[in-house]
Design a protein that fits this description.
With about 425 residues, the protein is α+β, with helices and mostly antiparallel strands. It has helices at about 5-15, 25-40, 55-60, 75-85, 100-110, 175-185, 190-210, 220-225, 230-245, 260-275, 280-300, 310-325, 330-345, 355-375, 390-405, 405-420; strands at about 20, 45-50, 115, 125-130, 135-140, 150-155, 155-160, 250-255. It has two domains: about 20-160, 60s Ribosomal Protein L30, Chain: A (2-Layer Sandwich), CATH 3.30.1330; about 175-420, no CATH class.
Length: about 425
């Protein structure tokens, strides 16, 4: 593999696989609020928040970690202001003390915090303006969860950056064939720390989800209803991690494509299969390279937030990773991806909440069924619905569907959710 392409894929893995505690959208809001408080230099007496519809969608129903069960944009802002550590970025709420947790609700109750929808065309847009006496500070994040594009105090610009995404798809500078080649050739010393952290963090939160009754208990129900064969255990484990994460578990997750649910979905089925099949650890790490990069590849054309459920991309990644784990070649992996998107594409994202766990299980099922279909001599062909000839053409078709075809669906979902808040 060319060195430039090798370094590109290596950098993508390291940039994408980072830890976060809690659902990443409310955590990003809390991060902006904590930074605004630091810039202001005082505890704000009031705050004005603008967020894009997709941020509102993903923050509305999910528990903000370390808040005693609070939900919503204003709660995330209050948590960030009262106790957030902006230097920790997506772990901004990870070091909150019990005393600070007790302060969040009273601050939320007494402090005017207005929330309105952004007029920006960017699907990922957070603006936090805070006030204390005659002073004010403003922080804006756009495009991705930690991408700060503006920091101001009393009208003076202290920092200016560039939006990472304004609605156009990211360039696809690698292919599924590149991913498999990279997984075959990568020096494990280059990726081991990144992947070992993913295995450790995501295993821990999934185990916690199976131990306790979080959310809808999807993972526990799957095991009780259908047993612990490897296929069902892979789905149940990933679902349990999502259940815990959506419902206030304070353990970190290593994310993929800016999402903890996608990080869990892409990684844990591969880990479960590797443990059950007693696959050498080196093979597991290489399979995780495949699952994570396939997830990123599918998601990049779609965009960071849309009406298309991101777990679908990660489920395809999981199927591809398990396929590689079991000795699958590029051809088998490519057909696994095509089969999986043919099965599952079209699942809507209606925000972060308990039902995400069930969607995670469904996405993993699609990935595993897609793999088993090709292993047993069956596949979907170009012309079957949105499937086109060749895996890259099919990936582009799905991106077009999600980004363009589902735009009006996204707008309607957001309208419905705003109506619920009225």
């Amino acid at each position: 593999m060319e060195r430039e392409k090798y370094e590109n894929l290596l950098n993508i893995l390291k940039e994408e696989l980072v830890p976060a505690m809690g659902c990443t959208e409310p955590v990003s809001v809390a991060y902006a609020a904590a930074l605004a408080r630091d810039v202001l230099g005082a505890v704000p007496q009031r705050a004005e928040i603008t967020v894009s519809g997709n941020i509102l969608k993903n923050v509305k129903s999910v528990v903000v970690p370390n808040t005693g069960g609070l939900r919503g944009v204003a709660a995330a802002v209050a948590a960030g202001i009262v106790a957030g550590d902006a230097e920790r970025e997506l772990e901004v709420l990870s070091a909150i003390t019990p005393e600070e947790i007790a302060e969040i609700r009273p601050y939320l109750d007494k402090t005017p915090i207005s929330v309105s929808e952004s007029r920006s065309d960017c699907v990922f847009d957070i603006g936090v303006r805070v006030f204390c006496g005659a002073d004010e500070a403003f922080v804006r994040i756009m495009g991705r969860h930690t991408n700060i594009v503006s920091v101001e105090k009393n009208g003076v610009v202290l920092r200016r950056g560039k939006a990472a995404e304004t609605g156009e798809p990211c360039g696809q500078d690698f292919t599924v064939r590149d991913i498999v080649e990279f997984a075959d050739q990568v020096a494990l010393g280059d990726v081991a720390d990144t992947l070992e952290r993913q295995v450790a963090c995501n295993s821990a939160i999934c185990e916690e989800g199976l131990r306790r009754d979080y959310g809808a208990r999807v993972g526990k129900i799957l095991l009780a209803a259908f047993g612990d064969d490897v296929h069902n255990l892979a789905k149940a484990t990933a679902a349990a991690g999502s259940d815990a994460r959506m419902n206030g578990c304070e353990l970190p997750v290593v994310i993929v494509s800016g999402s903890g649910n996608q990080g869990i979905t892409a990684s844990m089925p591969v880990v479960v299969y590797a443990r059950k099949l007693e696959v050498p650890h080196e093979k597991l790490l290489r399979a995780l390279v495949v699952s994570n990069l396939v997830t990123v590849h599918l998601k990049r054309g779609i965009g960071c937030l849309s009406a298309y459920c991101g777990a679908v991309s990660a489920g395809c990644g999981a199927g591809a990773g398990v396929c590689y784990l079991r000795g699958g070649s590029y051809e088998e992996i490519a057909h696994t991806i095509v089969n999986a998107v043919a099965i599952e594409s079209g699942v809507i994202c209606d925000g972060a909440k308990s039902s995400c766990a069930a969607k995670v299980a469904s996405a993993v099922e699609a990935g595993l069924v897609g793999m088993e279909m090709y292993r047993r001599g069956s596949q979907f062909y170009g012309g079957d619905g949105i499937v086109e000839k060749g895996v890259e053409n099919t990936i582009r078709a799905v991106a077009d569907l999600a980004r363009n075809g589902m735009r009006e669906t996204d707008e309607e979902i957001i309208r419905l959710m705003i109506r619920q808040l009225a």
